[in-house]
Write a structure and sequence with these properties.
single chain; alpha+beta; 3 strands
Length: 152
């Protein structure tokens, strides 16, 4: 079995973040349009469960349980031995499996460039566009509060 390459942590974190935030329909469309897909086997078939989300008030202090969240995870191994893993919010087994395969492909020199260009870049662009749109929508509802000084 081939060992997974040790990539710079931040690069992998970036593409995993993009895959996790990606719209499942757009990811599936890009996946279907991408013809250079390798064969893979499931190490851990997509499975859905719950995780406890914890938080801190203002980012400081002791943690507390915010609530539970549905999560789907998958782990795959390409035929060349490189493994990929994915955890996605919600119940999309398809998104979890596709994301795990893409994670493995991005670690493989044969697929990394084409996968990044054809799938990750368009997903990143769509996420930024959605974020900008949401920001503009929120800015329209912004209320400015100020205090006027009354006579002395």
């Amino acid at each position: 079995m081939k060992e997974t390459k040790k990539y710079e942590k931040t690069k992998r974190q970036e593409w995993m973040s993009i895959l996790a935030k990606a719209d499942p329909k757009l990811l599936n469309r890009l996946w279907c349009d991408f013809s250079d897909r390798p064969s893979w086997t499931n190490i851990r078939a997509p499975e859905t469960g719950m995780v406890m989300v914890r938080g801190k008030t203002g980012g400081v202090g002791t943690t507390f349980n915010v609530g539970e969240m549905t999560l789907t995870r998958a782990t795959v191994r390409l035929d060349n031995g490189i493994s990929g893993v994915a955890y996605v919010q919600g119940r999309s087994a398809l998104k979890a499996e596709q994301s795990a395969v893409l994670d493995a492909m991005l670690q493989d020199d044969r697929y990394a460039t084409s996968t990044f260009t054809s799938i990750i870049k368009p997903l990143e662009k769509a996420i930024k566009k959605q974020k900008t749109t949401a920001g503009k929508k929120a800015a329209k509802t912004k209320v400015e509060f100020f205090t006027m000084v009354r006579g002395k």
